[in-house]
Design brief:
single chain, about 350 residues, alpha/beta, Rossmann fold, 7-stranded mixed beta sheet, 3-stranded antiparallel beta sheet, 11 helices, 10 strands, about 20% strand, binds S-adenosylmethionine
Length: about 350
């Protein structure tokens, strides 16, 4: 099926039962015995030393992902995720204009299907890797004139104060892939980023002019954030969304095949791993999402494991993928933000 094909997308979410899979994993010793299904990300309980170590690890992430995107800039590493329109039906609303903030846009695999499917939607897409943002711009340029519907920018959403790289050297700026006319350029990226940053910083105020999104899309990005920064990360995401809007979340889940395959040496913490290229990946439980929402004052309106069975083309063996799907609503009365 071609990328632009709009035929119905099959969405699998319950190919097998999570509890059954958990028993298989435990009884067959497929994962380290100290992995518990219930403990959750513990930002609050980190002591100073742990917090400093987490900070050091997190600070290496921007460059690790920048290198990752540099290595994959020639090919499309992430495929278009057209199933998102089925998974989150609010994104298929063709009648009303709506605004989505995508965090961790990678090479545009989520932004593109939205822009393609809904001529009335406007997508702010950010990533802390400038290479990723350039890749998303290049991919979006294939869609033709987006006339103000696509606003990419660079921002580290997990930073204590969201950081925009507004000091890129002129050399770096010149190396940036030249954007097609009317789409995005480095200056525009930075200007848009600044606008959004301002909205975050003002989020505790009642400014009616804040450019809030209807929804924020978090697809396989929270797992790339050190768990000691997850609360900060989600708080920034929530601050950019209007009351009543949602954080739409899909990410790696406990006992996902990729978790079971990680070598022990790459395990940093119970459910936190470092890939060989230095990027982090954390495997979420549904309990994590319950705790995070309670801490942030968000309403968890949907949260479940999605269990998808794929078959390895070469050896025909089943590959059991586990994802966490969640919808976290910003209460209509809004949330009170702690200092950013
Ligand atoms: C696994 S990729 C997912 C990309 C895309 N969402 C997708 O589903 O294909 C994670 C992306 O999040 C970005 N990222 C990780 N941490 C981030 C942060 N703190 N702020 C902004 N982007 C971040 C990375 O650069 C990378 O592009």
């Amino acid at each position: 099926m071609g990328k632009g094909d709009t035929t119905a997308v099959e969405y699998h979410s319950h190919d097998f039962n999570f509890e059954w899979w958990k028993q298989q994993v435990i009884s067959q010793g497929l994962c380290p015995s100290d992995v518990q299904p219930h403990p959750s990300v513990e930002e609050a309980s980190c002591d100073d030393v742990e917090y400093c170590q987490a900070d050091c690890v997190q600070e290496t992430q921007q460059s690790a992902w920048e290198q990752f995107h540099q290595q994959h800039e020639k090919g499309v590493f992430f495929k278009e995720r057209r199933y998102l329109l089925v998974e989150f039906p609010e994104l298929s609303n063709k009648d009303d204009p709506y605004v989505v903030l995508e965090i961790g846009c990678g090479n545009g695999s989520s932004a593109l299907p939205l822009l393609r499917a809904n001529p009335k939607c406007k997508v702010y897409a950010c990533d802390f890797s400038p290479k990723a943002v350039d890749a998303t711009c290049a991919a979006a340029s294939t869609l033709g004139d987006l006339s103000g519907r696509f606003i990419p920018f660079v921002c580290d959403v997990a930073a204590t104060v969201p950081v925009l790289p507004d000091t890129r050297s002129s050399e770096e700026t010149q190396q940036t892939t030249a954007p097609p006319p009317g789409s995005c350029g480095t200056l525009d990226i930075l200007a848009c980023g600044r606008l959004l940053l301002d909205s975050w910083l003002l989020s505790a105020s009642t400014s009616p002019s804040r450019p809030l999104a209807d929804h924020a899309l978090l697809v396989f990005v929270a797992s790339a954030v050190h768990p000691a920064r997850t609360v900060t990360f989600l708080r920034h995401a929530a601050a950019a969304v209007r009351p009543g809007g949602c954080l739409l979340f899909r990410d790696y889940g406990l006992y996902d095949m990729t978790m079971l395959r990680f070598p022990a040496a790459q395990r940093l913490d119970e459910r936190l791993y470092k890939r060989q290229d230095g990027t982090l990946t954390f495997f979420f439980t549904v309990e994590d999402l319950h705790r995070l929402c309670a801490e942030l004052g968000l309403q968890l309106v949907e949260c479940e494991y999605c269990c998808v069975e794929l078959v390895n083309r070469k050896n025909k063996k089943p590959m059991r993928r586990v994802f966490v799907h969640a919808r976290m609503r910003i209460p209509v009365e809004g949330i009170s933000h702690k200092t950013l």
